[in-house]
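Human:
Class, as today's exercise, you are to examine the entry below, and be ready to discuss the fold:
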Amino acid sequence: MAISFEEISDRILKGLLDLNPAYARNIGLHEEYDGKLPSVHNEALENAATWAKQELAALDALNQDDLTEQEKFDSVLLAHNLEAIPFNFYDMREWEDNPLYYSNNLAVVNYLARSYAPLPERLDGLARHNRQVPNYLAEARANLKPPFARPVLEVAGNVFGGEVRFRQGEVVETIQKAELSEADRAEYLEANRQAIEALQGFLAYLKEQPAHDDFAIGREKYQKLLLRGDMVALPVEDVLAAGERDLERNFADFEATACLIDPDATPDEVRDRFKNDHPSADELIPWTEKLLEEIRTFLVEKDLITVPGEARPIVANTPPANRWSFASMSTPGAFEKAREAYYYITLPEPEWSPEKQEEWLTAYSYTTMEDISIHEVYPGHFIHFLHVQQAPSRVTKTLRGSTAHSEGWAHYCEQMMLEAGYGDGKPEVKLGQLDAALKRDCRYIAAIKMHTQGMTVDEATQLFMKYAHMAELPARAEALRGTWQPGYLAYTLGKLMLLKLREDLRQKQGDTFNLKAFHDACVGNGVPPVPLLRQKLLGESESAPL
């Protein structure tokens, strides 16, 4: 008897979630996946790659004539996610050369942050999770083959160190204050202690490892990364040229906008003037809450996108494990019972000197926070994932198939909101948007050139300093990020693809084109690669030029 698409898609989804229980928890599937860590033994990873190939063959054997239009869309999205597994195992091989590969499964903040079940029940899942950490990290160490790229070691130290600090602080405090039997309390604290000990051992292991500076993955692998990550089949050189054109446009626009504000000052001087105008540490969160309401009101009044319901994110200080990020959005997944969404902002540490706190707060200038909040909340990530909860199928609700779509949508929103009149044409608001765009453009170009054309970290640093108007220290940090995260071009890549799709759809539909309908389609089909969304909206299967 022939197997139905529903049966095969449910089987594949379960297999994908079993391989990534942390992701399953993040989208709200707690009953089945709380307390679980996957095996990361190299044989288990190879078995996963073999399984993915078998399921790809099963999808390929389906009769397309028997499928609905949504099932055809879902089939491509499933295949895209399956193809990433053998690619990551056989080609990228981060399981051997990047300790950060093992970090996501260790995160436990959602056990405490979301009230999807009574606290004792969540703490029981957390304890089961913690008890598996020693074996999980032992398997990771058995896989890893040093030396590692120098920036990878630095970032890994911060990330795994954050997991230690979170368990030492908030986890211990929560267990001690929770209404538990003394036996359960002692058991949960012991499981947490074992996890901390294993994490500290892993950190010590990382500190002992030699480092190297040979980070480039090469053109061939980068071409595959574009295809397997975001379904971009264009030659790397064409992708690079599109980013260089965007950089030139934004750079000229930035210079002209700065001149409008003060023709007697340099663009850097104008930008720094606004950089030093920011809320205090005590004011930052309440001021941001007020700002979000103003942005949301504009969005609703202009009717730019459907805003589902009356939900608001909670603005909060970033948890210890994620304090490498200045600002981020943590939104409940499509299957999450607890509806809390958090807009995390990283406040300066209270023990820092006043000078260091002031330096940190320059990243949260008033104009910068407007741009960041559009990106993270309205109508960026927060609105996007509210729509994901209403996506048309279980496949589109479950799978997030493209970083370029998710980050590209949020980055697109920064530009689109100003096009729609946000900021009343004030040049300082536009300067903040262009400042962020230039940084993303430089990431785009540095990523491709460092990994395919031999650009050095020093040369990439100079790129950020010249075109993104950055000081040397943060410019170098941005350049170093590209050495271990070759996909950090995703922001601009996704924005360019969405702008191209919008223009092509406008040309096709003429007077019937509706911007709100376009935006609803962008976020209403889950997070597929933009070329797949393009195929659905325009009927084109080939990668369009950028």
Residues 5-212 form one domain. The chain has a mean pLDDT of 94.
